[in-house]
Design goal:
By secondary structure, the chain is an alpha+beta fold. The chain contains 10 helices and 7 strands. Helix content is 38%, strand content 11%. Strand 4 and strand 5 form a beta hairpin. The radius of gyration is 34 Å and the shape is globular.
Length: 330
């Protein structure tokens, strides 16, 4: 009698896997085995998957989107420079076929809803209407400025205004309702920078506004305005016709703002070097009071830092406008 051991027993072939529309692991190679051998032609196959596969694909896309956002945040992080971020932005725009010199677009919902209305406009008739409006509308005159008489430039400024403010075209305030943060980092009042961070890269108008405030602050200090030794009326009431002693004001020890640098910007960061000299420190209170109103009404300021050597993405020596540098000369 011949004994058959288990390893002598031939292994039966695996049964064919049933085809079912519920099976979702079908590969291209297995699909080709199901085709007749005499059909040799290229195939373009579109597979419809169930919600599980769709969810997995959506999850991968979502994760990919998060990775792209993280990479973008890494580019904008504090370990980069203004020059580097500008180069990355120019490279990305070049890859997308976007003209890097064009004006940055505002929110898309405003572009679609408001700016598209100007596509079929009669520019000459539109300019006449704007010129008539400027006769009685101060806000419109401020928007158009010296472009009156140039229909193309007038339309460009109107579009830019709408792009920046959307439906709040007539709203005069352009600042922010958020209060800026104030920090002091080993501030030396006779040789230190004052830094301020905005909510975005400043326009030429923003640079002029901030620079004008700081220049006025310096001029007042230079003329001795910040002298706590002569505050005769600070605690007086105007109801009783207070007296001012001019001789006393003349004899007090003068205080003077010694020196100041130009107001510089690199993208959303700005700075100014100061030497307060013999000014009293309430000069800083005066500056912060001015910047508080400036931020809420005109140019939103996110943070102000007194002192510190290198803040944010600031790159020493980078003074090229193409890389986001702007300056207000004092």
């Amino acid at each position: 009698m011949h004994t058959i051991t288990p390893h002598h027993i031939p292994t039966p072939p695996p049964p064919p896997r049933p085809l079912s529309h519920h099976h979702h692991h079908t590969t291209f190679s297995s699909l080709h085995t199901l085709l007749p051998h005499h059909h040799h032609f290229p195939l373009t196959i579109c597979l419809s998957t169930n919600t599980t596969t769709t969810s997995a694909t959506s999850s991968r896309r979502h994760q990919g989107g998060e990775e792209e956002e993280e990479e973008e945040e890494a580019v904008k992080g504090s370990r980069t420079t203004a020059r580097g971020r500008r180069m990355v932005r120019l490279r990305d725009e070049g890859e997308e076929g976007v003209d890097s010199t064009s004006t940055p677009a505002g929110p898309s919902k405003y572009d679609d809803k408001y700016l598209n209305d100007f596509n079929d406009i009669n520019i000459n008739g539109f300019s006449v209407v704007l010129e008539d409006a400027c006769k009685t509308d101060k806000e419109m005159r401020a928007v158009l400025g010296d472009s009156i008489g140039n229909p193309d430039e007038m339309l460009k400024r109107i579009k830019e205004r709408i792009r920046r403010k959307g439906p709040n075209f007539s709203k005069s305030k352009t600042g922010t309702v958020l209060v800026f943060k104030v920090e002091f980092r080993d501030f030396n009042p006779v040789d230190q920078h004052i830094w301020f961070q905005l909510y975005g890269s400043p326009s030429d108008r923003d640079v002029d506004l901030i620079g004008g405030v700081i220049q006025s602050w310096y001029v007042m200090g230079r003329l001795g305005a910040f002298n706590s030794s002569n505050l005769q009326l600070a605690s007086e009431s105007m109801e009783y016709n207070p007296l001012y002693d001019a001789d006393k004001g003349f004899k007090v020890m003068p205080s003077s703002f010694h020196d100041i640098g130009d107001v510089e910007f690199q993208d959303d960061w700005g700075r100014v070097w100061v030497d307060l000299g013999t000014c009293d420190y309430f000069a800083i209170d005066v500056l912060l009071n001015c910047l508080t109103v400036l931020s809420s009404e005109y140019v939103g300021i996110k943070k102000i830092i007194f002192g510190g050597r290198k803040i944010g993405d600031w790159e020493e020596g980078m003074t090229q406008p193409d890389f986001g540098y702007k300056c207000f000369k004092i």
